[in-house]
Amino acid sequence: MKLRALSLLLLLLAPACAAGDREVTLRFDPRFGSEPFACGRDFAGIGTTGASVTPLDFRVYVHEVALVRAGGERVPLVIADDDTWQHDGLVLLDFEDGSGACMTGSPGTNKEVRGTAPDHDDYTGVEFIVGVPDEQNHLDGATAPAPLNAQGLWWSWAGGYKYVRLDVRPTTQTEFFYHLGATACAGDVAQGFTCQYDNLATVRLDGFDPDSNTIKVDAAAILAGVDVDKIPDGMSDTLPGCMAFPGDPECPAMMAPLGLRFESDEAGAAQTVFSVAD
Amino acid sequence: MRRVVAVCFAMLLGACPEDQAPAEAPWEWQLPPGFPEPFVPEDDPMSAAKVELGRHIFYDERLSYNETMACATCHEQARAFTDGKPTPIGSTGHAIPRNSMSLTNVAFQSVYTWANPKLSTLEEQALVPMFADFPLELGVQQDTDAVVRRFADDPEYQELFAAAWPEDDDPFTVERIVQALSSFQRTLISGDSGYDRFIYGGDTTAMSESAQRGMALFFSETGECYHCHAGANFSTSFRSAGTEPGPPDFQNNGLYNLDESGAYPPGNGGLYEFTGDPRDQGKFRVPTLRNIAVTAPYMHDGSMATLAEVIDHYAAGGRETVDGPFAGDGRQNPNKSPLVRQVELSPQDRADLVAFLESLTDEAFLSDPKFGPP
Fold this sequence. Notes:
The structure holds two protein chains of two kinds.
Chain A: H1 2-18, E1 21-32, E2 35-36, E3 43-46, E4 51-69, E5 74-76, E6 78-79, E7 86-87, E8 90-94, E9 112-118, E10 123-130, E11 154-155, E12 160-161, E13 164-170, E14 177-180, E15 183-188, E16 192-197, E17 201-206, E18 214-218, H2 219-223, E19 241-242, H3 251-255, E20 274-277
Parallel strand pairs in A: 1-18, 14-19
Antiparallel strand pairs in A: 1-2, 1-9, 3-4, 4-5, 4-8, 4-10, 4-13, 6-9, 7-8, 10-17, 11-12, 13-14, 15-16, 18-20
Chain B: H1 2-15, H2 48-58, H3 71-74, H4 122-131, H5 144-152, H6 155-164, H7 174-186, H8 194-199, H9 209-218, H10 225-228, E1 250-251, H11 272-275, E2 284-285, H12 307-315, E3 320-321, E4 328-329, H13 347-358, H14 363-367
Antiparallel strand pairs in B: 1-2, 3-4
Helix pairs in contact in B: 2-6, 2-7, 4-7, 9-13, 12-13
């Protein structure tokens, strides 16, 4: 009862506080190195062998987005639900437009996170987590709301979602995959899972002004440590790329760029995928 | 809210019974003796209209993005819904690492596929062949809207979907497709084999002498088969409307042993693929043995061609692979169940066990038109 009274009060007060809020749009800039990412064209100089690839898919979930003030205070961005890309604090960044070899059936793209934050003038950093929060990471049949309805990100055999999907076509084989998600999970789809390896990457970028800067997302950085041309031998390696299977040999080198360690909870080296751009 | 609507609807029906179309009769299971009612999720109740729609979709190649493959391509009725191949190929050419599974009595499984601890309903399972990327099976994700539209634009399906969900404004969704497929699969119940007629029907001629001896061995402490291939469906994986499923059971029956920790061939480590725990290498869900005579080749990778070979494997307490990339002594696999151990079985014993397994074939199930293509 008391709680309800309090929340009513808060609701009444909300418009008053909102006057001090402002809209914030974080703009993401997907790339392969220096080149803007696009479906339907080739990118050279990829991976350890400098291979040439055509993109097949590039999508990333982020959540817990916050701005950081000069003094270090973290100010959560209140994400507006939009029934397509943003829901309950979760945002799908969809860089592919379904054209060319990107056979995703999803022509729409989203390169922004839209929300509101108190109108401070000293935001100098941004923070977010790459992935889907544990509570939402169970594949509820086909009923989950957008942006969890992106079928290409359904990790059906794992009962959850792919957090990052970056698939490319090298010249030697039809696909080279990167599917990152939580692994070694217990539980079930109905009740949800607890996972030993969350594989959620927290990204913090300093020297970032939300009004003038964009956030570069470099697909080439994810592929930098692997040979995308290498065809799996079926013994030491059963699939081209990393799908976070136990023992999947490409995974350590493909998770490190996000600051993650394969099959470990400990943080890895600094991430190299996201950076601040003008 | 939903209940209120239902009540009003019932009152309406009562008011003018003669001009209302008769509501669909409640679903009635026709269960063989010894079978409880299957578990059905609350949000996907059975109805004749959904089963009929599901049967159409199950056999329809338009469910695959490139229209080359249906569920039935890998799950053929005459083979108890398997495909006769060691391992199949997906619609775009990917090699699938595991053997296509029988769908006999699939409603009674508590977890689905060879070793996945996470898939606990048919609804969850159906998303795998439809949406998996690697190996890709049907490839619906290549353009989900276009695939769904094929059904929405077809007059026959318009009727079938409307009959299944008369209240839906737009029943043409992935969720509805998955629900219809699941309802159909729940009807795939087989319990009229020679064994069933012998045990439940009192038909003493339904099993040969040899099959009866094989049955005794199967259920004995010599054979030990029944510990794992247990109950009405010959599997420790079991769920019905009245039973809460226990924790999923996965067993290693000694097929491989690639290294000292008991590794199975890469990509086919069984439960290990999900837990990453080396002690789970080679652990698989216990498959049903119903209709087993028509589902060759056997095991998760289709690596045994005949039932005789399977019996020899168990008699030896595992399989030794002498050379090649998978060389190793499965009999020594550290994860192997102690129930799989060398036993003295005469050639007659072995033939009897095979005869028993053959008595589990339910001919009516394999040819019943209600499970066949529309």
